[in-house]
Write the structure tokens for this entry.
Amino acid sequence: MSNPKILLAEDDVTMVSLLDTLLKMEGYEVVSLAADADVIAAVRSVNPDVLLMDVHLFSQSGLDVLRQLRASDDIAKVRVLMSSGANVREECMNQGADGFLMKPYMPDDLFNLLRQVISA
């Protein structure tokens, strides 16, 4: 089986670098988006196992992107983990997220949640 593919939508360059390194060390394939990238188009082209997305992106709302994903027949089933420094877990889950991580979080919390979501 190939390594699970993670699409990373995060506007903090330091966080992108850290997550990219940690996820690759755990054996994940990682595709990182530019801060102002079209997340919907990227999901279609990359076909990730999981989209790991910040709630507050550079020029767009992660919640808006999540709503668009869930309304798009071809990509509605992609698994989405949301993260934020604000406690918006309930809102994310109500919009269709598969999981939520409150920043700052420990790498093990991320890995455990990824394993749960991928195996679901």
About this structure: The CA atoms of residues 55 and 63 lie 6 Å apart.
